[in-house]
Amino acid sequence: MIQTKQKGLQEVLVTAIKRATDEKTLVSFVKQIDWVDPLLFYAAGKRVSFENRCYFADPAQHVIFAGIGSVFTIANSSHKRFQTARDEWDKVKEKAFVQREGYEFGTGPLLFGGFSFDQEKEKTNLWKEFDDTTFSLPAFLLTVKNEKAWLTINQFVSAEDCAETLYNEIISVEERILQESKCALEGSKLTVTSKVEVDPKGWMNAIGKVQDEMKQGNVQKVVLARELKLTMDQHIDSVLVLEALRIGQPDCYVFSFDYKGACFLGATPERLIRKEGEKFTSMCLAGSIGHGNSIEESKQNGETLLHDEKNLAEHGYVVNMIRGVLSEHCESVNIPESPGLLTTKNLIHLYTPVEAKGDANLLAMVEELHPTPALGGTPRHEALKLIRDVELLDRGLYGAPIGFIDDEGNGEFAVALRCGLLNGEKASLFAGCGIVIDSVAQLEYEETSLKFRPMLGALEELMK
């Protein structure tokens, strides 16, 4: 990778074209611009005829980015999918020309996407647009942090290209995008034409099958997920759903991956892993309870959760697993001895923050950590086999790592929860919960109903 400083876009294009060989070379140009609302930027992408878009907001770090267009994708179902993604990205980075005045996390060449939950699960048409590995490098990326904004322009060039022509084309599109980003969001009122829970009785029966395996000592915990299908009277606009999630779930990661006409989006409270330099941060999030009907009841529920043996046991599985992975790959790991509480709009969770120091590869860490017992179970292999056998759902990207990695190897992946898949006028929502030997099927069903609320609430905003 070649770093250039204090050059204009056209100069960088000229240099890259002169040095280009038989293979196309990535040019990534970063500049600071006036503040732009990332959601309006995301919306502008569709109006400027870009099919692929992405959006990622990290509330803890106050970083939001929106990407539109795609100049490069990694889409495959390789059995070595994590390593394949690393290799393909390394190949692009190796010859890339990157112009920036100082590194800023979340800017520059940045791959956004994710991995499917389970590569071995039989696939359905529900996720036909997405592969087991699906990442995209946006043509234009807006990054907003602490009221400052940066625009990254990504473009591949070859030896036959004309720098002046490319430059004029890029600037023309940029101007259109920024102009369209000034337009207010608009949308018409939606009406639900059907709402179907996919076989709730079968899902509760699956809990019994899992508990039979637990009685045999084969597994300790298994996470089972289910699907809620909705159909509207017209196309569901992901921009308006994102707006509702951004307002309604301010303490969560809000994400969207609009790809080939389908859009996977949600508001998840759970980070899988973040890397910036040698600093890794993760979290253990397992065990939850509803708020109740008053502030006092919510406080009491939180205290109950902190002392509930079932939830503490579930949480402990996650802590032990994440501690083990990070201890193997990092020099130092810091994990509190007991959990605290993380409160979102709809639920209260047991929460343990995790920090570590090391130089491990981010995608290698994602591979090691996914899935944690919070989304798979324990032991991992046996839990995943049971999920394949009894779960009535192709999870696709649900419960899987969703996020980004940049040219420096830094990035962040969340766990895709409280989410849904939009396709035209149809929406599939997903929710799951951890099953242990003393779980009560009806209570677990009610917990998943609570976990549908963030996405249901966002969709209901479009019906007003």
From TrEMBL:
Q: Which Pfam families does the UniProt record give?
A: Chorismate_bind
Q: Name one GO molecular function term.
A: isochorismate synthase activity
Keywords (A to Z) from UniProt: Isomerase
Q: Which organism is it from?
A: Bacillus mycoides
The EC number(s) given in the record are 5.4.4.2
Q: Which InterPro entries match?
A: ADC_synthase, Chorismate_C, IsoChor_synthase
SUPFAM superfamilies the record matches? ADC synthase
Q: Which family does it belong to?
A: Belongs to the isochorismate synthase family.
User: Which domain of life, per UniProt?
Assistant: Bacteria
Question: Is this entry keyworded Isomerase?
Answer: yes
Domain Chorismate-utilising enzyme C-terminal positions: 201-451
UniProt catalytic activity = chorismate = isochorismate
Tell me the Gene Ontology biological-process terms attached to this UniProt entry: salicylic acid biosynthetic process
Task: From the Swiss-Prot or TrEMBL record, give the protein name.
Answer: isochorismate synthase
